Amino acid sequence: MAVTRLLLMALMVTILSAGLAHATDWIEERVVGFKNVKALIARIEDGLSEDKLDKVGADAQTVANFAARIPDLFPAGSGQGGKTSASTDIWIHFADFSSRAEEFRRAAETLAHAAETGNRAGAEKSFSALRSTCKSCHIRYKDLF
Ligand code: HEC
């Protein structure tokens, strides 16, 4: 009896820690992805001022591809168990969170298109629109500590 209980407890601990390891993987993957986005945004800004629109277009496309994955990178249960600044509001308002990710993706696509077609004025305008989508999501869904 005692042995059975011990085995059950060991099994539960294994299952729980597997769950935590899983959450940690999601957190790591998305934080690495967002840091890469930050670096790409800096590079896009340089590219715009140096008029290297082909590079801007490619980088904006990379940002759009990441943006498309955002909802999948925040599965239920991945808001704890690691070092994360994801707000629990994400899972309370997941439809709104996902639509902000979609807005972000669309803004990046618009920038990519403007840059690829050599439309510099359009690229600059869509770059500032793209940046404002970062802040509007962070204000609601990223904890500040
Ligand atoms: C749809 C919402 C959303 C959009 C849009 C978004 N972010 Fe984030 N971002 C988050 C969330 C949520 C986290 C926290 C992830 C975690 O810690 O698990 C995060 C984390 C980050 C991080 C990781 C390091 C840190 O400060 O915690 C960086 C850097 C970042 N975002 C930059 C950006 C930039 C730059 C943009 C726009 C070009 C952007 N993000 C757009 C939601 C968003």
Automatic annotation (TrEMBL):
GO terms for cellular component: periplasmic space. SUPFAM superfamilies: Cytochromes (SSF47175). The keyword Signal applies. Binds 1 heme group per subunit. Keywords: Electron transport, Heme, Iron, Metal-binding, Signal, Transport. Pfam families: Cytochrom_C_2. GO terms for molecular function: electron transfer activity; heme binding; iron ion binding. It comes from Magnetospirillum fulvum MGU-K5. InterPro entries: Cyt_c/b562, Cyt_c_II, Cyt_c_prime. Gene3D superfamilies: Cytochrome c/b562 (1.20.120.10). Heme c binds at C134, C137, H138. It comes from the Bacteria. This is Putative Cytochrome C. Residues 1-23 form the signal peptide. PROSITE patterns: CYTCII. One of its GO terms (biological process) is electron transport chain.
